[in-house]
Amino acid sequence: MINNVTTLASNFSDVRFTTLERDILLKLLIFSSRTTAWLLGRNNAPITSIQRWQLLMKQLALTAKILRTGRFIQQFNSAARALTRKHQDYFLAYVTVIRQLLIAVYLTFDNATIFNSIGFIPWKGARRLEIRAFRIWFAAGVCGIITQIYSLYQLNLPNQVPEKQLIFKKQASKLQLLAGICDVTVSSAARVRRAKQFDCHPQPRGFG
């Protein structure tokens, strides 16, 4: 028993998550919890079961929001470097730069509402800003999907890339494609939910 626990602990100690992998994992968990709550609602499940998954979704979303703090600076820098770099494929380069700029703007809006999200400094304009942020996130997700579909198409063409490297690139592209689909799904659902809340609690005209 002790040997099994020791082996399990040693295996966990070897696990390393990059920032990108952590973000993708959080997106998948948020997407899964949102989908589960929706399916339970469609099947007339007990309200307590639905609320449990909705609470998990909200807590995961808040965790992801906190972890995104300050990342808009890094994203603007990445977009600037991509814009000045020489590219062999201009279509892929332009779509990538547009996506990075959209993500940078989204992260800026997202960071601006973090104090409202944690309840530290509530302000009425945060909800409107979040709706705009979700729209930008949705657009960035669409650009990401286009980028990965185009990349997979290019990888399937005859080329001189070694087979192992080609397999790795395809797997990475498919993972990014899955992340893009999650981005589009989560952002559109969150925008609709926020818009409904905004309609239920209208703000003064011209505010925010």
TrEMBL record:
Q: Which UniProt keywords apply?
A: Membrane, Peroxisome, Peroxisome biogenesis
Question: Which compartments is it annotated to reside in?
Answer: Peroxisome membrane
**What Gene Ontology cellular-component terms does the record carry?**
peroxisomal membrane
Picking any one GO biological process from the record gives: peroxisome fission
One Pfam family, short name please? PEX11
Q: Can you say what this protein is called?
A: Uncharacterized protein
**Source organism per UniProt:** Fusarium oxysporum Fo47
